[in-house]
Amino acid sequence: EVRLVESGGGLVEPGGSLRLSCAASGFTFEDKPMSWARQAPGQRLEWVSSIASRSYTKTYADPVKGRFVISRDNTRNMLYLDMNNLKPEDTAVYYCSLRDDVDQRGPGTQVTVSP
């Protein structure tokens, strides 16, 4: 059974930084491309970033390009999202998921960007 648990969210001022983490279990993590997605109140789930199984390829949505960095540690079954220069429009619940099955995602972690 796929299990994903996000952590690291919180309240941060505009321009601040956060690091989100995702602990994975129940599958062979190093074989799976992974993603981060987010959902703001009243909005649809929005893809944020993806990373290939061996970290060779990383892709980003335009709104976060140049500010967010996705990474993974296959020795620890961990996925990360470093978020810099945060903006109020980044406020959302952030989820990690299997890239090819977004329904396999964790409960999410809340990120709020506000003065």
Structure description:
This protein is mostly beta strands and 115 residues long. Helix content is 0%, strand content 52%. It has no helices and 11 strands. It has strands at 3-7, 10-12, 18-25, 34-39, 46-51, 58-60, 68-73, 78-83, 92-98, 101-105, 109-113. The strands form 2 sheets. Strands 2, 4, 5, 6, 9, 10 and 11 form a 7-stranded mixed beta sheet that branches. It is globular. The N and C termini lie far apart (40 Å). The relative contact order is 0.32. The model has no long low-confidence stretch (mean pLDDT 96).
Question: Secondary-structure map with pairings?
Answer:
Layout: E1 3-7, E2 10-12, E3 18-25, E4 34-39, E5 46-51, E6 58-60, E7 68-73, E8 78-83, E9 92-98, E10 101-105, E11 109-113
Parallel strand pairs: 2-11
Antiparallel strand pairs: 1-3, 3-8, 4-5, 4-9, 5-6, 7-8, 9-10, 9-11
What is the CA–CA distance across the termini? 40 Å
Which percent range describes the beta-strand content? over 45%
Low-confidence stretches: none
| Computed CA radius of gyration, to the nearest angstrom | 13 Å
Q: Treating each run of at least 4 consecutive H or I residues as one helix, how many helices?
A: 0
Mean pLDDT: 96
General shape: globular
The proportion of residues forming helix, as a percent range, comes to under 10%
Order of helices and strands: EEEEEEEEEEE
Count the E strands: 11
**Class by SSE composition:** mainly beta
- Report the sheet with the most strands, covering strand number, pairing sense and barrel closure: 7 strands, mixed
